[in-house]
Amino acid sequence: MGDVRVESEGSITTIWMDRPERRNAVDGAMAAELRAAFEDFETDPEQRIAILAGTGGTFCAGADLTAVGDPHRRNELDPEGAGSGPMGPTRMRLSKPLIAAISGHAVAGGLELALLADLRVMESDAVMGVFCRRWGVPLIDGGTVRLPRVVGLGRALDMILTGRPVEAEEAQAIGLANRITEPGRAVQAAQELAAEIANFPFECLLTDRASTYAALDLPLDEALRAEGAAGVPIVEREGVAGAARFNAGFGRHGVFHSEGDQA
Question: Whole-prediction pTM value?
Answer without folding.
Answer: 0.86
